[in-house]
Amino acid sequence: MTYHDWLAAVPRTFTADPVWNVEAYRLAMFAADLAWHDSTKLLSDKRTLGLSDQLNRSAGGVPSDIAEGYSRQSHKDQARFYEYALGSARESRNWIYQGRHILAERVTAHRLELFSQIIRLLLTMIPNERANALREESGESYSLNALLQAAVPFSEADGLTHAPRTTHQA
User: For the chain, what is the domain count?
Assistant: First the structure.
């Protein structure tokens, strides 16, 4: 099934909803449908039974988290759910890669690229919502470029440690 064939078959219940305008959501819905079929194929080999379930759950979580985030009023909440979707998209991509021994090479390559495209879109959406959340909280407007330039690089954050948790006995 091609993306365009799939689009033509999606019920109006979905296509009439404003979240349908979000490209990452549409692609994630398509990927979740494809994962259903991929999971069925992975069930044919006992070595990939658990992988099949994990793929089905993570792929289904991507459009669900995008839809839930889109429905949140605060940009901070939206960003949080888009981050959940990002984690599930990356997880799905990993499960597809691990299932490559059962799935056809062409299928694996297509799914890896599809989930990578969803990840790229989410990586754009999340900072946009975070920047909007900062504007909401401060009442000031910040440019996204200024926020990204002010971010602490990972190499500087690597040395940070967390205080140990302590428990108090009564």
Answer: 1
